[in-house]
Amino acid sequence: MKYLLWLVLIFSPYVNANEQPIKGFGNYYNVPEHDKINDSTVFKIAFDVGDGAKEGQQNNSMNSLARFINMHVAHGVKPDNIQLALVVHGSASVDVLASSEYKERFKMDNKNQSLIKQLLANNTVVYVCGQSATHYKVAPEQLIEGVKMSLSAMTAHAQLQQQGYTLNPF
Description:
The protein has 170 residues and is an alpha/beta fold. The chain contains six helices and seven strands.
């Protein structure tokens, strides 16, 4: 029985994110035969998240950044060669509230805080749209530490593009 379990774990296409830079998030499938990624490749990618999670839930769109980091590191890309940006706007603005602030509003912890903190520690910058934040009554001092307030999501994307970031299409 142990041997069968070992075989299942070894040959499973699903990889456990707990073995990756972003712990507890960013699950992905192993693709053993894929087009090789050049060793000198540097990813500078901006992700756009405008739809908020249901109250008390994790924002799965934000989890895409963890998946990107974990899967590429597992397939040989140096962590320093992965530079991501997360631009948050719309109803997702409350998903970057510090857990204490989130709890005050929704009577539960912010399930996105651990993910955001880990992304920030792994070459990711996080911006919240100042226009959306103002609309949703999110002040800069209420944000998860390290999250930056931009004038707008449009401004953040324009500046990131000038810095060489491409926009992830999904």
